[in-house]
Amino acid sequence: VLFSNFLACCSWLVTYPVAPKLIMHLCNEDMAQAAHLMASISVLDAIVEFFANPVCGWLADRHGRKPVWLGCLCLSALANILMAVGTQYFGLFAVYAATIIAGPSRSLVTLAFAIIEDLTVSHKDPGATQSQGQSARFGLPVAAMGAAMIVAPGSGGVLFSRFGLTAPFWAAAAIDFVAILWAMPLMTESLVADGPSKPNTEGWTIPLMAESLVADGASKPTGEGIGSRLAAILRSVCQLLNSRASFVLIFSYFCLLLSEGVHSTVMLFAQVRFAWTPLDTGMFMSFVGVLVVLMSGPVLSAVMPLFGEHRVVSVALVLGIVHNLGFGLASKGWQMYAVMFTTSLELTANPTLRAIISQRGAAERDERGQFQGGLGAVAAIARVCGSAGFQQLFSTFGVGPRAPAGAHAWLAPGVSFFAAAAVTFVSWVSFEWGMVSARHDERNSCRQVAVLPTAVGAVDCEAVDLPAGILDHPRATVASLTR
């Protein structure tokens, strides 16, 4: 699964350094217009991902992870072929069409998280070690993406310099086909780890009526049509908000993802301030990939038992603030490398915070894909707002007519990073508030559990979902339910 995820990420990232150059070519080298167009393309991509993530998660719950995985890879290959061929004849229309077709392929990361949950012990009653282990495992898909970042962007820059604008897109399509050929015989269906997947006896439908979404946790399809897919998206998102602490943590995660939307401006920013070429951008992305692999893999596994999830996320978010400020103030290209290296621990914030939220959410076998799809929908909303907002700031106040002049004009292209630092600060404050709320909820639960020893004989273990005989040991019961 991780190797297939690595190949899929290579397919996305090999075209990453070339995309702005292609857009500028279609805009007759107008930087401001290219920034506006990239903002609109990013928003369209995020909107498609918003609808595709929960639906793909639901389909993966009902029909298995593997068929959805293969379908997403096929769509990605088709989109890359369209970008390679269509832009020569249809211009921007081909770019928008390819963006829509490739949207569902972004669900591969969501499916990877769902597969990891399939293969991880249920976190309905997790101990500390299990919780920390899950956080480390949630870093594996991010590490796979980091490994792809080491190889793919630099390769894309080399292909562009040797063979032209369309070569990276042909390479991306070839990588997609290799991923399909790899996953088809070798990838196993992870749902069988918990038991056989539910057969689909009602067709490819999702409940449309609101009553069917909340009545006894029903998941049997009762509706039809496109509207039923919208109901699935609503259900996935609402499933996340099961308490005040969860809501605040989701908001913190949303702000973190919102601040990551500033990455959509990095290539244009570096081109304006440092005159970087696609090859320079590809080399920088490869350097970032090395750090992502280290932070999301061995470093995250090492620091989690030592400091715990709370401290890791808190420190990572503070470093994220420093990271964005450093990028905005960088005046030389080498300073981008220095800032990225010294604040690289901020890369652990996303997988660790996502693991914390998942531990507080539903973990039933037939809902994991949908739950992760809900988180994917939150990420897509953040991408819509972040990409549009930061690209608009860059095009208007960074390189547009409203950019400041005079001695401080060199700071103008970094305006998006200054805004991202402010958003990351909000994410940090929200995270601390959410963790305080979570501890408050745990204390209240402990007070309620404290009355159990006086009613040992009156409690039906099955009714409260406890193992038989556990109430013979009241202290163990209190410790178990408090966790």
Explain briefly what this protein structure is.
Mean pLDDT is 76; it is low at 121-129, 193-226 and 469-480. Helix 7 packs across helix 15 and helix 17 (415-449) runs antiparallel to helix 18.
What features would you highlight for this structure?
Major facilitator superfamily (MFS) profile domain-containing protein, 18 helices, mainly alpha, Growth Hormone, Chain: A, transmembrane helix, 0% strand, transmembrane, transmembrane transporter activity, MFS_trans_sf
Question: Can you tell me about this structure?
Answer:
The chain has helices at about 1-15, 20-25, 30-65, 65-90, 90-100, 105-120, 130-165, 165-185, 210-215, 225-240, 245-260, 265-275, 280-330, 335-340, 350-360, 370-400, 415-450, 475-480. By secondary structure, the protein is mainly alpha-helical. It folds into 2 domains: about 1-195 and about 205-450, Growth Hormone, Chain: A (Up-down Bundle); about 450-483, no CATH class. The longest helix is centred in the middle third of the chain and has 52 residues, at about 280-330.
Calculate the mean pLDDT score and round it.
76
- Distance separating the two termini: 31 Å
Number of strands: 0
Looking at CATH, the homologous superfamily of the largest domain is MFS general substrate transporter like domains
Please tell me the CATH architecture of the largest domain by its name.
Answer: Up-down Bundle
CATH fold label of the largest domain: Growth Hormone, Chain: A
Strand content: under 5%
Overall form: globular
Can you write the helix and strand succession as a string?
HHHHHHHHHHHHHHHHHH
**Estimated helix fraction:** over 70%
Q: Given this structure, which CATH class of the largest domain is correct?
A: Mainly Alpha
> So what's the oligomer here?
single chain
Largest sheet: none
Treating each run of at least 4 consecutive H or I residues as one helix, how many helices?
Answer: 18
Low-confidence stretches: 121-129, 193-226, 469-480
Q: Which structural class is indicated by helix and strand composition? A: mainly alpha
